[in-house]
Amino acid sequence: MDSAAVAKWLDTVMESSNITGALLIDFSSGLCLGARGKATESDSAYLTIAARTALDLKGVGAVAFKDSKVLLRKGQSGVLVAVFKEKDTLEEMPDEL
Asked: CA-to-CA distance for 21 and 23, rounded, in angstroms?
């Protein structure tokens, strides 16, 4: 995966309102591909495990973690996207996800 593209995507996500962190994870290994804001590399393992039960049949879900609502989306390429939002905001995920 292109590290420059990952960094650019993470920076773009962090510009959205009420976003406090963003994380890209290799779903099969649980390894962090990139992190910004409140999200850290060490969150990858927890969120990978949590996603196993939190994701619906379309690969979308949410969990409460680190005083945030973490929106999860698993892509067909095997990458898990985790976007940290303030817990009290219920806005939809950005279209870029």
From this structure: 7
